[in-house]
Write a structure and sequence with these properties.
By secondary structure, the protein is an all-alpha fold. It has helices spanning 2-57, 62-74, 76-83, 94-115, 122-135, 158-170, 176-197, 205-215, 224-232, 235-243, 251-284, 296-315, 320-335, 346-356, 360-374.
Length: 383
């Protein structure tokens, strides 16, 4: 009996040592990532933001100029979240990746604001505007008029400048040929999602549900609104851009990265955004993705499953801890929001934190600290 007790004590001590070692390793990793972000990516973000804001000030149409400033001012967190993907790429490609990410997200924020404006055909306008994101990922392709269904297009080349900047940046990445198809397909999904999601003047939720159902990958068990959520996320595009910086990225590895981000991490991303927006959506009568669940219990169970699958798939990727840290950061950005503690979201919040595991604690602490510095704030599905 004494021998068994000694073995039990030894096993317990070893377990504590392993937990302490993992905690130390994670802390070291967080410090490395933080240093690379603040000393590498962040200065590029600031420079690019100033450049795009100055370009917005030169837009001759007063309404478009105002909307461009609105996109810049209200969605800064989106740019910073996008650029986080650049932290994990080889240092020699960090700047072009950051510029590509900022240009793509800047274009997404701008056309998202534009698509909310009145037009003769809201669905067609939303879709056409968001096709600029597809064009941004195709170096060498012809120019595209994103304003074809919008009442005004006098932006002095502002939207096209985003497109050209993104094209020029991705064209410098060594493995973009291996990841381009996944990036372009992700942008195409965004365009369709944003078009069908604007059904006030045409289309309808039935068309959106039909399309999302057809997009659901076989064997995933995802509901149409979960696949629809994945389609609205830009994270699969960001992951493809970052993967393109790996000179040894092959087709199989590129496919594995995409399979983790779409549909799983993308679905988690947009569902979390919907979760924190749920009270406002209900009050104002807007369509809510998480509102399709029967109750808070089903919502929590499904979102836990999606989070758990996301962490498992990213953990199996080469350099999986980087993808897991990005997934944890994205999730905790939403989970620290006050709305995540309300009755409709509290159970889901608890289970998602459990799925994230050891990464949750330090990531939540960082997000809370940033939230205090910023005085609160929110995001959108394009973050």
């Amino acid at each position: 009996m004494a021998g068994l007790e000694r073995d039990a004590i030894a096993i317990a001590a070893l377990s504590r040592c392993l937990r302490d070692w993992r905690r130390i390793a994670l802390t070291s990793r967080f410090l490395t990532v933080a240093r690379r972000y603040w000393l590498g990516a962040y200065p590029v973000i600031k420079g690019e933001t100033r450049r795009w804001r100055a370009r917005a000030g030169a837009i001759p149409d007063a309404e478009l100029r105002s909307l461009a400033f609105e996109a810049h001012g209200g969605k800064r967190g989106n740019l910073e979240g996008a650029a986080a993907f650049a932290v994990f790429v080889p240092s020699q490609f960090a700047t072009p990746v950051t510029r590509a990410l900022v240009a793509f997200q800047g274009a997404y924020d701008y056309v998202d604001v534009l698509s909310e404006q009145e037009s003769e055909d809201t669905v067609a306008s939303g879709y056409r505007l968001h096709l600029a994101l597809v064009a941004a990922l195709q170096p060498g392709q012809r120019r595209m008029d994103g304003y074809a269904h919008h009442p005004s297009g006098q932006d002095a080349g502002y939207l096209q400048a985003f497109t050209e900047a993104c094209r020029a940046a991705v064209d410098k990445l060594p493995s973009y040929a291996a990841t381009a198809a996944y990036a372009i397909e992700g942008a195409r999904r965004i365009a369709v999602y944003q078009g069908l999601n604007n059904w006030s003047e045409g289309g309808g939720p039935e068309e959106y549900a039909r399309w999302a159902g057809e997009e659901t990958p076989e064997g995933t068990g995802l509901s149409w609104w979960e696949t629809g959520a994945a389609a609205g996320s830009s994270l699969a595009v960001f992951a493809a851009m970052a993967a393109a910086a790996d000179a040894f990225m092959g087709p199989e590895q590129a496919a594995a990265v995409d399979a983790a981000y779409h549909p799983w991490i993308g679905a988690l991303h947009t569902l979390l955004d919907s979760l924190v927006d749920y009270p406002v959506d209900v009050r104002e009568g807007h369509h809510s993705l998480v509102g399709h669940y029967r109750d808070a219990q089903e919502r929590a169970g499904r979102m836990h499953h999606i989070a758990e699958t996301s962490m498992r798939l990213t953990g199996a990727l080469p350099g999986g801890i980087s993808h897991q840290m990005l997934t944890a950061a994205m999730s905790c950005f939403y989970l620290v929001a006050p709305e995540a503690g309300l009755d409709h979201a509290a159970a889901a919040r608890t289970l998602i934190i459990a799925a994230i595991g050891d990464l949750a604690g330090p990531t939540m602490a960082i997000m809370r600290a940033r939230q205090k510095l910023d005085g609160g704030g929110g995001s959108t599905a394009g973050a």
